[in-house]
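Friendly challenge for the regulars: who can give me the structure tokens for this chain first? No prize, just bragging rights.
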Amino acid sequence: MDLLDSVPRFGLTLFERGLAAVALAWAVLTAVRWRRSGVRAALSLSVPEALIAIGAVGVWAFTVAPDKIFLPGDIPQHMPVNLVPVLPLVSDLLGPEGWFLNGPNLVANLVLYAPIGFGLRWRFGLRMRWILLAAAALSTAVEVSQALSDQMRTPDVNDVLLNTVSAAVGALAFTAAHRLLAVRGRGRRAAAPEPDAAG
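First reply, four minutes later:
Bragging rights claimed.
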């Protein structure tokens, strides 16, 4: 889909506006929950929801929202669909342009869905297979919308694969962080002095 092509013109601006909307909604929702259940409970719900929302805004801003201004005489057109998995990625990375031009787009696709995977694992405790299914379904819907659009975005099955891996990376990152914090918590409790039985 050439994810980074939309960044210089509209993608970043749309993303910034989306982030502002998420920040406002997050602040209001967290304040309401804070008054009802306390700050810890409020943040444990609102933070992962914010991550999911940020990921969704990024997907919308960089892959779905219109990213080109067509001047008089320009002809909007549909781009060809790539249904060949993996091989085009390898060819792009090993070609003359290599990592210099194709690497950033690859990395962007691998990062885009990570907040969604992280947030889904944290907020709902979903198993990995459900996170993979949700990411694959969302990414497939995005690619289909690109195929039906005349915004000259390139639908690509490899984007679905990369985005699904991205969500998995986010989910694994949460699992690793959760386990690390649990180990540290047990270490602190073990190091704490025993209460004085005589006292």
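Residues 48 and 121 are 9 Å apart (CA to CA). The chain has one domain: 3-68+78-191. Your move, everyone else.
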